[in-house]
UniProtKB/TrEMBL annotation:
InterPro entries: MTERF, MTERF_sf
Pro residues bias (residue ranges): 20-30
UniProt record similarity statement: Belongs to the mTERF family.
Keyword Transit peptide in annotation: yes
The entry's keywords: Transcription, Transcription regulation, Transcription termination, Transit peptide
Native organism taxonomy: Eukaryota, Viridiplantae, Streptophyta, Embryophyta, Tracheophyta
GO biological process, any: DNA-templated transcription termination
Protein known as: Mitochondrial transcription termination factor family protein
GO molecular function: nucleic acid binding
Span list, region Disordered: 13-59
């Protein structure tokens, strides 16, 4: 009997059962996309500059704190108020503040005055001086004819000039005032440039018309405001009307006295006009407006004593 010897089976890899692919007819086969990408130089290869692990970025928080510190310690401006009224201040560079400072300084304005001006109008902190500030100075120097040394006085007296538009506000006001009679010796000066910030239709003209409504002629009103330019800065509701009413009803005086002493409107009704009138009435005296108001408190009291002594001496005769 023939015994069969166990045979060892040799298993071929499964892949060997798959027919081999036919060689490509294209001698330059296209490289697969993924492979071509893998052949590209990486950012760390010699073909690219090395990556910086510490990018050169500015610390915006530090710059902002530096700007706030400069604003408060150097310019003496309230930074919270500036941020509230001028949000652009947050993003503007510190060079913007310095350019405004240099502009104001070039016009003779001292640093001690910067704080007051910029605190009142923080929108000035971010303006371009060449488009917003120098045109105003040019207008004052060459059209209003304010001498250069007096520009500083005009700004300190009325900082609002710096936020007014030349074409829309300042030039129309100058034209109105010139036609009204502010010419020659009565021309606009550093003491009266504040009139330029007033609206012609909304402020100046209504005050002229109100004074005319009291029975004064146009020529009389013009003469009054030329002699006392402050008349054009007073409120009709809060100044003119209560003082005219007191003049006519309590003091029993005539409107004609206003022509002789238009400065009457510049005195405090509660602080000076009423108290002095009351003292005169208590002693049975009366004085013209000029004599009653223009003197100091000491001079008024001396005059009152003299009048009382004179009345006593007269009663003895």
């Amino acid at each position: 009997m023939i015994q069969l010897q166990p045979q060892t089976l040799f298993l071929l890899p499964q892949g060997s059962l798959i027919p081999s692919p036919k060689p490509s007819k294209n001698p330059n086969p296209k490289t697969p996309k993924s492979l071509s990408n893998s052949l590209r130089p990486t950012l760390n290869s010699p073909n690219y500059p090395p990556l910086s692990h510490h990018p050169n970025t500015s610390d915006s928080g530090l710059l902002f704190r530096e700007k706030v510190l400069y604003l408060e310690t150097h310019l003496n401006v309230n930074s919270q108020k500036a941020l509230q009224l001028n949000p652009d201040f947050r993003s503007c560079p510190i060079s913007s503040l310095k350019s405004v400072e240099n502009c104001l300084s070039s016009m003779g304005i001292e640093r001690s005055a910067f704080g007051r001006i910029l605190d009142m109008y923080p929108q000035l902190l971010t303006v371009d001086p060449h488009t917003h500030l120098y045109p105003i100075f040019d207008f004052l120097l060459n059209e209003v004819l304010i001498p250069f040394p007096d520009i500083r006085k005009s700004m300190i007296r009325c900082p609002r000039l710096l936020v007014c538009d030349v074409d829309d506000q300042l030039r129309p006001a100058l034209k109105f005032l010139t036609e009204l009679g502010f010419v020659g010796r009565s021309s606009i000066t550093c003491q009266t440039t504040l009139l330029l910030v007033s609206s012609v239709e909304g402020t100046l003209l209504p005050k002229i018309q109100y004074l005319q409504s009291l029975g004064l002629s146009y020529e009389e009103v013009v003469n009054m405001v030329i002699r006392s330019p402050g008349l054009l800065t007073f409120s009709i509701k809060n100044n003119y009307k209560p003082k005219v009413e007191f003049l006519l009803k309590e003091m029993k005086k005539d409107i004609a006295e206003l022509k002789r002493f238009p400065q009457y409107f510049s005195f405090s009704l509660e602080g000076k006009i009423k108290p002095r009138h009351r003292l005169l009435v208590e002693h049975g005296f009366s004085l013209p407006l000029r004599e009653m108001l223009k003197v100091s408190d000491g001079e008024f009291n001396v005059r009152l004593i003299e009048m009382r002594l004179g009345s006593v001496e007269g009663s003895w005769l």
